[in-house]
User: What shape does this take?
Amino acid sequence: MDSTASAMGTIAGAAREALGRFGVYGGRYVPETLMAALLELEAAYAAAQADPAFHAELDGLLKDYCGRPTPLYAARRLSEMLGGARIYLKREDLLHTGAHKINNALGQALLARRMGKQRIIAETGAGQHGVATATVCALFGMECVVYMGEEDMRRQELNVFRMRLLGAEVRGVGAGSATLKDAINEAMRDWVTNVRSSFYILGSALGAHPYPTMVRDFQRVISRESKRQILEQAGRLPDAVIACVGGGSNAIGAFYEYIPEENVALIGVEAGGRGHGLGEHAARFAQQGGGVPGVLQGTYSYVLQDEAGQIAATHSVSAGLDYASVGPEHAMLHDSGRATYTSATDAEALEATKVLSRTEGIIPALESAHAIAEVIKFAPRLGKEKIVMVNVSGRGDKDMGILTREMDLSGDATGTGKVSAR
Amino acid sequence: MAIAFKKRPGLVIYLTTGDPDLETTRLMAIEAIDAGADVIELGVPFSDPLADGPVIQRASQRAVLRGTRLEDVLRVCREIRAARPQAGLLLFSYLNPVLRMGLEKFAQAARDAGADGVLLTDMIVEEAEEYRRVMRQAGLMPVFLAAPTSPDERLQAIAEACEGFVYAISRVGITGTQAELAGDAEALVERLRGFTKLPIALGFGVSTREHVRALGEFADAAVVGSAIVGLIERTPAEQAPRAVGELVQQLCGGAKTA
Ligand SMILES: Cc1ncc(COP(=O)(O)O)c(C=O)c1O
Assistant: This one.
């Protein structure tokens, strides 16, 4: 990959910042037709960032409409069961619409309104970003078109209905593996075609600059709150923060304020799927069968691909983690070693869903369950004086269809509140 | 350096390499050249062609499924070059397959295969410093896209970065056929003229002889893609080279069936 790294990495200093670089990663690799729109977006975002009125409105809605701050909750029964570190859960699952996605959708919708764009485009995988976008469009009276892979429409059908109920048009995408990547392709084609009238609300810390930076900034509220909360509750910072990584938005939001705190380990959890072979998982950072740096959908980052540079199919039980690339800031954190990335398999995520449900009465989204699966492995290795924070990025309501197919609970529930080992 | 278009307007023909198969691509390219195409754009099939409409998406998918690789495209390029030394040959790709091969290795291989230039759909001028250096070293002409949405300062940078010709996108959108040429096109070409003496080729949605004739009033060449690729999709492989030759002839105005 030598020439790749050099091809992408020769820009330095301020120029690198301006181009949206995270180390050698990031940048802007898009059809020229989109460039004017990306530059316009970048300028509008910079202006909004500098405008106290923008922040006041965003913060007000995050509080009164979305329910921020979300609680930081000491998970005593889970900690006890695992017998190691004390576990705290950051409860993004309690936000309006059920996941962290609304932090970003709301921010971008406010920006779209400032820019006078009335037509909103979005992609969605698990449907949570689609629901969040449909929600804010209803709130602001905007037209909303959501692209979703047909496979994802099947497995997250409740969210398809929610989006339609909220007044959004959901367009199924049958191309490729009919999942998140294919939905992004189609959303970008729509944007290229309707770029003068439309605003693309991208749902993760992905894509061309300024999206990865902007989405991270809108999700940063997670760690801003959690840092204050853990200091209040535990009197010190956590030893580790764990979050699942699809495109990487909840993870970068949960990590960001801790990046300068070198004693806080940052652990991202990717989808290990059902095996190590290409096509069996979405673990871009895996040593075996993982991704290599490349360009997908506007940004330079780790990409699961074959030797010819064709993007690989991915698999995960969780639609929100089922994606071949990853946000460029995570690629940088990975290479620098500041964050480490691990994975949880489908089976581990399903088991973790059950464990959290039965120890704490919290049913996590399948995406978030990957982070729970990691804490189940990780916490017992630490002493009781250690603190581990887990971002529960969303709730599991949307996954009841998948769960009823994947889990057999008959004869399983003991009614004693005990967790049965499978 | 400029590509010489023999007539006005010149004709650039896009083929998705490997659809329906590599040998047919070679034959179609030769037929197209013999029927009057000045330049062949050899498209490298990609799994995620996000700037392309349904016709080229399907062709790309068929070619990827057949296992067509960048190396194969380069081999076809070399064969076409051997058969038609005078034709313009441009490699047309998304960035990722090129990065996977390695930029320098790709540039050398493209040069060895007799390509004149390269167009990368998702490479913009701001990101292109290293790419342009490598192209220059290998003696390849980089062609960049100019869009109706590009403001003047971008058009200037694009025009300065292009060699061979400038590829102007006729309308805001993805590739595909359309009934009428967009009104955007002429204004874009006019704006570009202020920044370059290179020939300007107009593509995206150019699909009929009528379009070619109309754009000949203001542009130097037409790029026809989806109309050709769609014809190939509808035609049995063994008849495709002849059918492509006939369509190219028709597009050039020397038609039997115009
Ligand atoms: C609840 C939840 N968590 C996590 C994700 C993964 O996205 P990201 O990595 O951007 O947080 C999704 C995406 O759909 C989601 O719905």
Notes: The mean pLDDT of chain B is 95. The first helix of chain B runs from residue 22 to 34. Chain B touches chain A through 49 residues (CB under 8 Å). Residues A 99, 101, 125-126, 128-129, 204, 244-251, 320-321, 365, 367-368, 393-394 surround pyridoxal-5'-phosphate (CB under 6 Å).
